[in-house]
Specification:
The protein is an all-alpha fold. It has helices at 11-26, 30-50, 57-80, 88-110, 117-132. It has five helices and no strands.
């Protein structure tokens, strides 16, 4: 019988433990995941802007839809989770920013101009930088 402090010699338990340890080390936290998604959307918007002469209205619409879906999640979380760990000011700012983004996207669809994408790209970059900022307060993502 093994000593009480040693784990049983079970290869399945060892594999599950190793997997759990490895997954936890390599899985980004929620803030990092949100930042990565915002940066992906910013990159898609920038690619759209850089190739403006060759884009179709369908591509503009699908790229804006991807961005809008991200901001809908932020909006819904802020509105539907008032007892969450976010301060009221932050929730209010998220809702206002999301509303601005939704209006801007409607404006872009109504009158497509590549320079109108600048503000969406900048917002996504800035919010991602804030999410990825270290405790010291330096925003290192761009």
């Amino acid at each position: 019988m093994p000593p009480p402090n040693n784990p049983p010699n079970n290869p399945y338990a060892q594999a599950a433990s190793a997997y759990g340890d490895n997954a936890q080390k390599h899985t980004p936290d929620q803030r990092e995941l949100e930042a990565r998604i915002l940066l992906k959307s910013a990159r898609m918007l920038k690619d759209l802007q850089d190739n403006w002469e060759n884009v179709t209205s369908e591509l503009i619409e699908s790229t804006l839809k991807y961005n809008r879906q991200i901001w809908m999640v932020f909006y819904d979380t802020a509105v539907e989770n008032p007892e969450g760990n976010r301060p009221n000011d932050l929730r209010s700012n998220i809702v206002n920013l999301a509303n601005f983004i939704f209006k801007r996207e409607i404006d872009i669809m109504a009158d497509p101009q590549k320079q109108k994408l600048d503000v969406l790209i900048n917002i996504n970059h800035e919010i991602a930088a804030g999410l990825m900022a270290k405790d010291s307060g330096d925003a290192t993502v761009r």
